[in-house]
Design goal:
By secondary structure, the protein is α/β, with parallel strands linked by helices. The protein contains 15 helices and 7 strands. It has a 7-stranded parallel beta sheet, with helices on both faces.
């Protein structure tokens, strides 16, 4: 089996190589991944989401260190915005996870590669690779893309939504459903004015969205930079893991999530295939020139392109 056996034996370099091959679209890598997928399903996957600047990376790093201190084998997947050139991820998140790196926690930064869902298929694949590596706690940080971050719900067993005391500026994120997918809500940067008020108001909103499974969504305060509140967060994560683990409907819940994730992957593959076909076609280049020259508006051009290529209804 080669690289798969090496990964199952705990070889970190082999795991990193396979993830890179998956990111690059190597079809052989997906055959290796299929073997690892058949052995996956037992790791606790924790999603961390929230608006930009909320402190997701710092808090994820602190949580990873605490979970490792408690005896968990931890890996981190940080889904960064794609670089301007489209060739990789910005690695600023790793700078904010120095404590985790110092504990030899496996951290992988992934570019979302313009997929309109924030969490690319490669990021999900990385979770399966990490589980094959022996990780039983995988923290997956998203780019904080609002509506699209709902995809985390389909990948993760526990979702942490992070806000700051200025959450009122991110009201659209409430409308996008981040409140609904958060199993745990954290008000980070709690030393700022209004933190207690924000926690109280968000707690009321969380109570209105009570879960049918009986889980009460806790609203916690933290200061990720100093580590304040991380112990309480780790306790809440463990409490949620136990609550979900004890549910009779766990199997059906996982099946529902897996089906939804399958749909998300299908959408990504279709988007890439259709987009590549359209942009490489002579019709696209023809009407792109029409738009660039000012002879046609983009909206009309899109409809004509789709009609010419047989995608218009």
């Amino acid at each position: 089996m080669g690289i798969v056996d090496d990964i199952l034996g705990g070889d970190v370099r082999s795991a990193a190589r396979l993830i890179t091959r998956i990111e690059n679209g190597d079809t052989g890598a997906y055959r290796d991944l299929a073997v690892l997928f058949s052995r996956a399903g037992n790791a606790h996957i924790i999603g961390v989401t929230g608006p930009a600047g909320a402190g997701k990376s710092t808090l994820a790093g602190q949580l990873a260190v605490e979970m490792a201190r408690r005896g968990r084998r931890v890996g981190i997947i940080a889904t960064d915005p794609s670089s301007v050139s489209g060739t990789g991820a910005f690695l600023g998140d790793r700078v904010r996870m120095k404590g985790a790196e110092e504990q030899d926690i496996f951290i992988r930064s992934m570019a979302h590669r313009s997929f309109p869902g924030g969490v690319a298929k490669a990021s999900a694949a990385a979770a399966y690779v990490m589980e094959g590596l022996g990780k039983d706690c995988i923290i997956m940080e998203s780019i904080g893309a609002g509506q699209s971050d709902k995809d985390l719900f389909f990948l993760c067993d526990t979702v942490i939504t992070i806000f700051t005391p200025e959450y009122g500026d991110d009201i659209q994120l409430f409308k996008a459903g981040l409140m609904e997918i958060g199993d745990i809500i954290v008000i980070n940067k709690s030393d700022k004015p209004g933190a207690d008020d924000a926690a109280r108001e968000i707690g009321i909103a969380a109570d209105r969205n009570a879960r049918s499974n009986g889980w009460h969504v806790p609203v916690l305060l933290s200061r990720a930079v100093s580590g304040e509140g991380v112990l309480d967060l780790a306790d809440a994560v463990e409490a949620h893991r136990q609550a979900v683990k004890g549910q009779e409907k766990l199997a059906s819940r996982k099946a529902e999530h897996l089906e939804a994730f399958l749909t998300a992957l299908l959408k990504e593959e279709l988007w890439q295939a259709v987009s590549s076909r359209i942009t490489g076609h002579d019709v696209f280049r023809e009407f792109s020139n029409e738009v660039l020259s000012g002879r046609m508006d983009p909206y009309s051009a899109v409809h004509i392109i789709l009609e010419r290529l047989g995608y218009e209804k």
